[in-house]
Design a protein that fits this description.
about 350 residues; alpha+beta; metal ion binding; Peptidase_M4/M1_CTD_sf; Elastase, domain 1; EC 3.4.24.-; two-stranded antiparallel sheet; six-stranded mixed β-sheet; Neutral Protease, domain 2; about 40% helix; metalloendopeptidase activity; 10 helices; globular
């Protein structure tokens, strides 16, 4: 594990606070009340995470190192906040009647498989960490999160958000926060926090593409497609291809993500805009992946993975720090070929310097 200067795991949610803020002010209590309760819950959990200084999953039973097999357990929280809840499916158990349980189990498996097959990483920590998830968390809870130890999924309010186990990239996104926690442990504020969010979007998208057998050209590059309820004017939570285009809805507002540094948002909210400015490195990755073509988890994903796990990425890294490391990683692995050229051009296109 990379030395992280004592910074503990953070409470990372898939739905940004600015989206829930907007919903919480809606005149319809069916939309406003779940959003307000979700915001209050998430604020409390973030405060609790800040008090944690030990990285890892306390009390987790380690798998035998190098087994290369997942150890999944899915729990039913029963619409309460007590975690993990009642065990409903263990590794190797047959699917049951609960679609949320089955989707969570499959999503944990898809994430494990991508990291193992593409990068030789045995689970989230690289050492066979068991993967735990709880579904049906709280009442009409409008989010999913990684809490430093496990995955947690709400059922959504049914009006704006559907069940958070539906998009496999949401599962991959949240579990990748765990990978970041065990490697670079990027500080969850400002540009390093936006990089933390972007890396989760990158690998969440790659997990979906891998599971569906899609090339970079086939992929929709959306995060959370299928999560928004019918009638909501939106495609998902974020678009890596066109940041700022994921939704434009009376209840949700308009997607505020910029795709270049010209639109960089300076704010004290959302930990310095971590869910907003992540659009910039997201688009850079999309540009690299589509320039190289083929399976995005191979060359483009490998470069990003090398930087995340290489030990040189500072926890307080800026976009420029990360960009320079991706150029160096592309050169180290592929020499001065089309991979390095694609990386240089992508960062130039979004306005992030590499020299």
């Amino acid at each position: 594990m990379t030395d992280t200067g004592g910074q503990g795991p953070v409470h990372c949610t898939i739905v940004p606070p600015h989206v829930l803020d907007r919903l919480a002010q809606h005149g319809d209590s069916a939309l406003a009340d779940p959003a307000r309760r979700t915001l209050e819950h998430d604020a409390l959990q973030r405060t609790r995470r800040r008090l944690t200084t030990v990285i890892g999953a306390p009390g987790a039973v380690a798998a035998e190192a190098g087994t290369g097999r997942p150890r999944r357990t899915v729990y039913d929280a029963g619409h309460r906040q007590n975690l993990p809840g009642s065990k409903v499916r263990g590794e190797g158990d047959d699917p049951g009647q609960d679609a949320s349980v089955n989707r969570a189990y499959a999503g944990l498996g898809a994430t494990f498989e991508l990291y193992l097959t593409a990068y030789g990483r045995d689970s989230i920590d690289g050492e066979g960490l068991p993967l735990d998830a709880s579904v049906h968390y709280d009442d009409h809870y409008d989010n999913a999160f990684w809490n430093g130890e496990q995955m947690v999924f709400g059922d959504g309010d049914g009006e704006i958000f559907l069940d958070f186990t539906i998009p496999v990239d949401v599962i991959g996104h949240e579990l990748t926060h765990g990978v970041t926690q065990y490697t670079a442990n990027l500080a969850y504020f400002g540009q390093s926090g936006a990089l933390n969010e972007s890396i989760s979007d990158v690998f969440g998208s790659l997990i979906k593409q891998y599971a569906l057998g899609q090339t970079a050209g086939d992929a929709d590059w959306l995060i959370g497609s299928g999560l928004l309820a019918p009638g909501v004017n939106g495609k998902g939570l974020r678009s890596m291809k066109e940041p700022g285009s994921a939704y434009d809805d009376p209840a949700l507002g308009k997607d505020p993500q910029p795709g270049t540094m010209d639109g960089y948002v300076r704010t004290g909210r959302d930990n310095g805009g971590v869910h907003i400015n992540s659009g910039i490195p997201n688009r850079a990755f999309y540009l690299v992946a589509t320039a190289l073509g083929g399976s995005a988890w191979e060359r483009a994903g490998q470069i990003w993975y090398d930087v995340l796990t290489g030990g040189e990425l500072r926890s307080e890294a800026s976009f420029a720090d990360f960009a320079k490391l991706t150029v160096a990683a592309a050169r180290a692995r592929y020499r001065q070929g089309e991979e390095q050229e694609a990386v240089l051009k992508a960062w130039e296109a979004v306005g992030v310097p590499t020299a």
